[in-house]
Write a structure and sequence with these properties.
Blueprint: H1 6-30, H2 32-40, H3 44-67, H4 69-72, H5 97-120, H6 127-140, H7 148-197
Helix pairs in contact: 1-5, 2-5, 3-7, 5-7, 6-7
């Protein structure tokens, strides 16, 4: 049962979107030196691998949500009257503003990926350490409102980023994570353009 009416929930979401937009601008400012470098270092091979991992994550999420939607669709957003989603990307659904929001997101991706890699990968010594960290990486997305059935498959991405970390440290895992997110946010941007102009 929702704790708030739809109008209050919408007001809260717009306030969250405003805060996230400010945070995206802050991340862009702080990582301005890394942004261009990350885009210059895009690897076609790594982009293809990221695409395959994203497809695996999405397919697994679909299977989990289809198999047991009552448990796997759980998110703290359910208590606020919404289905599980990602509050961080909520701004992409706002007509016209969503396009600007997505482009801000595209510029912030290198800094965001670096932060997550420093938290979840830095210092990983073995798979005994890497698997729990990868699971934690996936489940941490539940803090943003992602449902359990999506958070668990995101751990697959965490395992892939850990593989990249073992191959080339935090710089390589950050680049892989950035490119993975670049694919996802590019799709989000296309969706936002369709919402705006349809």
């Amino acid at each position: 049962m929702p704790l708030f009416s739809l109008e209050i929930f919408d007001l809260m979401m717009h306030a969250i979107v405003a805060c996230i937009t400010i945070e995206l601008a802050t991340v862009i400012y702080r990582s301005r030196n890394r942004i261009l470098n990350a885009y210059r270092q895009i690897s076609i091979l790594l982009l293809f691998q990221d695409f395959l991992v994203l497809c695996l994550v999405m397919g697994t999420a679909y299977a989990l949500l289809s198999y047991d939607s009552s448990q796997m669709s759980w998110s703290w957003l359910n208590y606020l009257g919404s289905s599980g989603s990602n509050v961080v990307t909520a701004g992409s659904n706002i007509k016209y503003f969503g396009i600007i929001f997505c482009f801000l997101f595209l510029f912030a991706l290198p800094g965001l990926a670096r932060y997550e890699e420093m938290v979840f990968r830095l210092g990983t010594r073995s798979w005994k350490d890497g698997i729990p960290r990868s699971l934690g990486f996936g489940l941490a997305h539940m803090l943003m409102g992602v449902s359990l059935g999506v958070a668990l498959p995101l751990s697959i991405g965490g395992v892939f980023f850990t593989c990249q970390y073992f191959k080339g440290g935090v710089e390589r895992s950050t680049q892989a994570h950035f490119q993975y997110n670049l694919i996802a946010v590019s799709l989000l941007t296309i969706n936002s353009i369709v919402i705006t102009f349809s």
